[in-house]
Predict the 3D structure of the following.
Amino acid sequence: MRQISDRRDLPIGVFDSGVGGISVLREAMAVLPGERFLFYGDTANAPYGEKPADLIRNLTLRATGELIARGVKALLVACNTATAAGISELRSRYDIPVLGMEPALKPAMANQPGYVVVMATPATLHLDKFCTLLSRFHDADRVFPLPCPGLARLIETGGPGSAVVADALRSFLSSISVVPRAIVLGCTHYSFIAQDIAALMPGTAIYDGNRGTALHLRHTLERGGLLCERPALSPRAAFLSSDGSANTQALWERFTLMDSPTIPKADPGDFSWGCFSV
Ligand code: DGL
């Protein structure tokens, strides 16, 4: 018989600097219908992508510490930047499963024979983790890293489909000197603008790592005997932010319920609003 204190009943902690993590949260909720989630966005310190590595690591440790302190059975770092800067330290600190994000280069390289562009924050592309990822491919010379400073912020302020996002994308994409077969979205914020990118790059395949990461989380929970399989009672997800403002709450409601052809639909009843600050 299951006890109330069963670790399986604890929520899964999901962390990002801001709304990007919501694209991963929605995927994880679709793949794990029996699970509850606690989402933390470090809105007071976002964006992370143009900050120095040490600062990103410290912010990541502090933010994820807030989730750990509330009791989570697994931690999903739904941010490529924070993963690149801090995942090793998180794994050595905590004895629960800790999963991170990395650009989905593997499926793009396996399925697309031409040039592959990786759009990500400057920090993600400059940290060692990305070099290590590249070193796994004998044909890494067909990978073009494309740092997109400021894009995550514009996605939050302007939103998908906005003129500011389209202008910024035009300017970033015009610096690519090759015709890519694929674009890998190496920042979880960018999943929300996959359509905007597709509109500017018709015929180019677009990849993100959200689905793969959600499935990996499912396997990890299964293997560890931590998976909840009965459908969870609503609300299934609650929110914490480091600024706790009404603006943040409104922004998160918008991104949580926003229609997108590439991100699973969310049911408004699945979320507990009134995100509180920490
Ligand atoms: N969504 C994040 C990522 O995947 C971070 C964006 C930022 O804070 O700059 O990299």
